[in-house]
Amino acid sequence: MQGERQITTANRIFLFSISLFLELNSSYKKNYLGRQK
User: Which has more confidence, 8 or 4?
Assistant: First the structure.
């Protein structure tokens, strides 16, 4: 039971970091493309 809980926490952190990375990536691309125009 304890091991399963740890895996769930790790998955949550992993998914959170991925979503955060994608969010930063998309906003960076918007700023970069906006400057090029």
Answer: 8
The secondary structure of residue 28, as a DSSP letter, is H
Q: Which two tokens stand for residue 18?
A: 């991925």
User: From CA 22, how far away is CA 16, in angstroms rounded?
Assistant: 10
Single out the residue of 11, 33, 9, 29 nearest to residue 21, CA to CA. 29
Instruction: Tell me the C-alpha distance between 24 and 6, whole Å.
Output: 27
pLDDT of residue 37: 64
